[in-house]
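In the previous lecture we treated proteins in isolation. Real proteins rarely work alone, and many bind small molecules. This record shows how such a complex is specified: first the sequence, then the SMILES for adenosine-5'-triphosphate.
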Amino acid sequence: MIEVKGITKKFGRKKVLNRVSFTANKGEITCLIGINGVGKTTILNAIMALTPIKEGDILIDGEKIHKGSYEKITFIPDAITMLPQMTIAEAMQFMQDFYKNWNQERANDLLGFFKLNESDRISTLSKGNAAKANLLLGLALDVDYLLMDEPFSGIDIFSREQIAEVFTSHLIEDRGVIITTHEINDIEHLIDKVVLLDNGVTLKEFRTEEIRENEGKSVVDVMREVYRG
Ligand SMILES: Nc1ncnc2c1ncn2[C@@H]1O[C@H](COP(=O)(O)OP(=O)(O)OP(=O)(O)O)[C@@H](O)[C@H]1O
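The predicted 3D structure, ligand included, written as tokens:
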């Protein structure tokens, strides 16, 4: 389990996160939702120790996060970070050389799943295929937790659907996933848990199945209540 406990982050005088807390379980998809600029990426960066936090703790499987924790967790940014002149095959080779937990078998599975051509250069990929190649490079790592920043952002509906399918496939297995989004519609059915954020605080944290079964509400219903109420 990833436990984010009361983290506070300031950029200059601006407090972006104000004691944000939530948990994300292994084997589940947890979605951080909030409008642009609410601090979703900053939370993922804080978990990855890419940005220092002022207060609070982050625990992974009960232990305070430390250097060794990053063998268990990976961050998939919202855009591919490989050099544009690389082919997908070269990008995969780079990952294999760099990370000892690279899983070539899963990478090949993902190539087929996303119908990507490994001889294509990154610079020539459509937005949708670039997003898929980006996910492939992260999902092929053998880690217990995957953090994904806006994996559905700016791509067409068919690519979104194909990316959504990967979440219910064997390619995710029993790993824990945290994704950020401001568009919930396409992916509501995939999500186990939702964390609603606003003004640097956690407004509400809930399990989708519970609100569906107990209150007959969708995630969007709860969002309307919380954000407009
Ligand atoms: N390095 C930085 N220096 C100063 N301010 C920053 C920095 N990074 C982020 N911010 C500010 O912190 C706030 C939260 O940014 P963040 O990128 O975490 O939001 P977000 O919810 O991920 O937004 P989006 O949906 O647009 O990606 C924003 O107001 C942003 O301008």
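Summary for your notes: The chain has a mean pLDDT of 92. Residues 127-139 form the longest helix (13 residues).
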